[in-house]
Amino acid sequence: MLKKITAQLNILGQCKRYGVSIWQCPQFLFVVMGVFIILVSIISYLIGARYIINPETVVLIVLIITTILFAISFIITRSFERLAEASQMKSEFINIISHQLRSPLTNIKWTFEVMASEEFKVSAEKQEEYFVNVKENIARMVELIDDLLIVSKIEQGDFSIAKREISLEDLIKDLVERYKVFAEASRIKLNFYSQENLPKVLADPSLLKIVTENLIDNAIRYTKGGGIVELKLIKEKDKVLFAIKDSGVGIPQKEQKYIFQKFFRAENILKERTRGSGLGLYVCKSILHKLGGQIWFKSKLGKGTTFYFRLPIK
Amino acid sequence: MKKILFIEDESTLQKAFGDILTQGGYKVISALDGETGLRLAKSEKPDLILLDLVLPKIHGFEVLKKLKQDPETEEIPVIILTNLERMEDVEKAIELGAKTYLVKTRYKIEEIMEKVKKILSE
Fold first, then answer.
1. In chain A, at which end, N or C, are there fewer CB atoms within 10 A of the end residue's CB?
2. What is the ipTM of this complex?
3. Closest chain A residue to B103, measured at CA
4. Superfamily of domain B3-121
5. Is A66 on the interface with B (CB under 8 A)?
């Protein structure tokens, strides 16, 4: 019982649980309003006692106080709305995730059912085809779960960052080497240019790998029918700039502002293929933010997109 | 031979279930997105449509709505075959005129085959 009461009194703890800043947390705002009303009552009493002969001043003071109270209640209402929105988003999140995990799962389940069934005859040739499908679907699930784990870590702030000096040039070179075959399979050429004597950056290599992999993967995936993907590293004062330019489908103008949002996927790519989690760029932005960097892009529909990020040298 | 139009964007499912329907003696026409599905429904006049909901180009609900609005296709029975299982989705599909709604992971492939047979014999 006592524990319950103290838990109720621990307002800051509750606000933290909601995952919103204290100025957006209803409990905290109520306390602010309460303290304000008490203070104002005392002050009004003191002022009222002094200026009782001057009613205009009293009216003016009351008016100001009412306005401030009105403003605080407005903010409180807004904070409730925000909490409701966040909870709505959470259930939407779970709905999307379960659907995306279920699709490959159904594929696997049904494929095995067909193969195990006595009623249906599956030729050896078909069987092999089915196994390839199962493998692909398992890879899809693993990919999604990996993305989700990163997102959950980011959101809980439970993110260990081991910054050290690393050579972006070496990191990108390795990556280009690794992606070469995949790119070639999609008729895409990878070109990498790095400025000479590029200084090292201060970052967490494993996190930076997630970012660069996501960007290069997107660039290849969304360049339809072949083309060139250019990667560049340039020194800028106390920062290093990375740019990756594709000649892909581009991002529609009106959707550009949502591109880093969790689960957002642009309409033009949704029309082509329903796969993809919509988490990649959200993860990139969150990681770069934690590393003290920035990410942005330029894009033209049908012409291509260039993504940039900047990281501090030290 | 009865014709079944299978509108499903997962090629794995298209293959696995499509093979079974063919073995079961049906002619299977497959569509990998909503737009193609609608077009084939009009031109091929299938006896039954299996429709997924999360589809590229046109969403399954929109496909269903258009099928039921068009006098040429409104009589064709539609089975919704999806992984969405919120009550509101099921209600919406039935309201729009779907014959039945099956959540993929909840049914065995044989059971779905049974439903197909039953609806086609009606």
1. N
2. 0.71
3. A106
4. Response regulator (3.40.50.2300)
5. no
